[in-house]
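Hi all, long-time lurker, first post. I run a small reading group and we've been trying to get comfortable going from sequence to structure in the token notation. Rather than ask abstract questions, I figured I'd post a concrete chain and ask someone more experienced to write out its structure so we can walk through it together at our next meeting. Sequence below, copied exactly:
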Amino acid sequence: MRKPKLDNKVTEFLTPAEVGRLIETPDGPPRKESADIVRIGLYTGLGKSEIMKLKWQDVDLERRTLTLRNPKGGVTTAIP
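-- Answer (accepted) --
Happy to help. Here is the structure in token form:
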């Protein structure tokens, strides 16, 4: 007997007030890196593991894009 497939994907959204508080996170040590990771995630929709894999070669300041190399889906992608 086959088990039924369950849609266990949970999507959560931040309220505008929560986003505002995250953007205003203090930048001073020791929180600077954490604040940067949160902001990149908010502005791009990337997850923590995707952000942590980024290298400077993936950042194009001229075009204002981040390149995701070897993502879960397998297709290299440029994110504005």
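A couple of things your group might point at:
The two ends are 46 Å apart (CA to CA).
The helical segments are 16-23, 32-44, 48-53.
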